[in-house]
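DM between two lab members

TW: hey, do you still have the Glutathione synthetase entry open?
JB: yeah, one sec
JB: this one, 512 aa:
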Amino acid sequence: MERNISLDKNTLVQYAKDFALLNGLAMRTSENPNSSDVIEHAPFTLFPSYFDEDSFYFAKNLQKDIQMLYYKVSQDVPFLIDTHKNIVNHDNLIRGLCDTLTKVSLDPSPQKFDLVLQRSDYMPHVNKNGKIEIKQVEVNNIAVSMGGLGEVVSNLHRNILDIFYKNVILNQQDVFLPPKTNPATLCAEGLVTALKYYHIIDYNNDPNKGMLLYGNLLPVNSACILTVTEDESRNIFDQRHIEAEVQRLTNYNVKNFRIPLSQLNSRLSLDDNKKLILDKKYEIGLVYYRTGYSENQYNDTTKDWDTRLLIEKSAAIKCPSVGLQLANTKKMQQVLANRGILEKYVDDNDTIDRILKSFAGLWGLGEGSDEEKKIVDDAIGNPDKYVLKPQTEGGGGNYFGEDIARLLKSLSLDKLKCYILMEKLNPLLTKNILVRPNQEAKVNQVVSELGIYGWLIVDKSNIFPNKNCTYYSYMMRTKESTTNEGGICIGAACLDSIIFKDFEKDFYRDLI
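TW: and the structure you got?
JB:
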């Protein structure tokens, strides 16, 4: 492969770091997570990583069905409560979500539309026959992240290929690269479209009039967006990319308030029509959560669960609703791997087959059945074949190797119900250079995880047709093959993009 410019590794790495910071591929430091005075580039790979093309398009084409499945599950309150009934006594987050959902079901919100903004994560699994199969790792319905930074790293890789490996990008880009990814724009389009739907009037009498009232524009005095954040926002630039796209798409006419959950209890109220009001002044049409997915993000002192309940009871569109978040647990992932359960929510057998094809082996625990005992005994004897997953979100928390055997032996059946066992995948191994702040960049054997973004808006009264995004976008995370966890913010993985041919020797040749 011909290169345009002779270079060494350090020159290319420094160029990539400069490009990253120039274009907002950045994070606040762990030492100063609430200040942008000192920032660092987010961890990224120097080159796009090889990914099987058929697997990529299989996952991308499945996204429409996955987001509809999770929406339908989120509307089945008895099923959600029953699925988690054995977990609530041991998991404060699940208990809080179930309590909130139960209370809202008794005092329903006047919210007319639901928004699903989702990222489904997959890994290429090499089966016993050496064939690549795409397998779902998890689904994310809340605080869907890395859309902003993922878009920048894709641009970075295209820039590197264009300047330093020109014939890859120019001569055969349609063959070797997927369509340009823009998840920040996709996420922003979902938020803005939901806000437009919030403003539909004459809804019950004349839905067509409501749809045509503003055309493709928001009203002059549009309701606002409330972005609910953590007290510390190290990953703020990922969020700012989406926020900037929202402003661009609305011609800078929509106010977006970024407020930590811990500060909202005294500032939010409901009017007589259950409209959500901030500071007794601003109508909130859309609540966008970038927090609330972990037990430690709810504080009794600041009455955060009361705040969540107030928001759920309001007319504002929630991203996500509490039902959609409860549909997002590891326990639900395991339950949905049952064909009989899927048939309740998916009508088409071919779609069910494709969804099931994407699932790895998943097993519930704590029931004490003979089948479960066989799986548990095998996991104790062969722990490297499994991953033990609690209900934790946000990266980290999974158990591997001998820790699995230890926990399966020591936990009571009641506490085991809070976990699921998942088949440990045999990921496709490739090579790349991982670029992290203040660390040497060197060639590593790596594995990658693909995330597919999509959104869906559903009319709860079935008057308007479902509104799906017109395209689906992606991001990729890559880590050393010896690392178990894969979160960007916890430092385990690097942002990456895709190439459909393995140019490993061309990229690394003579790079010293």
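TW: got it. The first strand starts at residue 26 and ends at 28. The two ends are 17 Å apart (CA to CA).
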